[in-house]
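Anyone able to model this chain together with S-adenosylmethionine?
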Amino acid sequence: MQDDVFFDQLADRFSDKIYGSTKGRLRLAVQQDAISQLPSFSSQAWRVLEIGGGLGHLSEWLAQNGHQVLMTEPSEKMVAAAKQRLQLTSVDVQQASYQSLSVEQHGQFEMVTVCAVLEWLADPQAALKRAYELTAPGGYLVVMAYNRDAQRMTRFLNGTGVQSLLDRPGNGRCMMPTTLFSASDLRGWLEALGGNVIDWRGIRCINDWIPDLPFEEILQIETAINQEEPWRSLARYQHIIVRK
Ligand SMILES: C[S@@+](CC[C@H](N)C(=O)[O-])C[C@H]1O[C@@H](n2cnc3c(N)ncnc32)[C@H](O)[C@@H]1O
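re: yes, here you go
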């Protein structure tokens, strides 16, 4: 079984490929739109835990909105870069894997986020279970994960034919996730935890299939379709919020 992929070797590529491009802007815009619509997001200061926070883009925005954020991340290189990026913010950055987080040590949080992490783990369901334990009753678990079916779609369109039905996980040395699962797998795992799915959107429903357009135009299109089928379930990432 492939181990969890800590981003020590992938830190630079991640920064350039995702946050240096429309993909990163779009990802953050959709996350922010979904999270900012939650009741009391703007009126209360929540304790928030980010698991696998990477360079801390989401944590930064959450702190700017008045929340008390603990950003955890196991990669030494990512932690160093996040501390540098977030030095003027109130975000508390700590080096930790999800396996080392516990209710006994950290308490529970009004919001726990696990974004673009599950697809790099040997056991994504174990991580979801831990994240849910760390979510306070009435709190929110925010999950974003890579969609196996978007990979299939790319391969169909590239002419890979029936071979496209065979998943091609990455080997941990490139930006292709190492654990592939579908939108319905993810929903099933979340529903099994017992909370209510209150928001479900796709990220990059159509962006990857159309020529470059001005960012505002892409965002307008994505926002119009990202909560509708079939667009949502074919999007590159799934973004789901569960209320505990
Ligand atoms: C694709 S990055 C996503 C970073 C950030 N959440 C974002 O969306 O920008 C995946 C992150 O998961 C982290 N990761 C890998 N294994 C982990 C584990 N066992 N516990 C917590 N995070 C882990 C990696 O080090 C990496 O920084």
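The longest strand covers residues 135-146.
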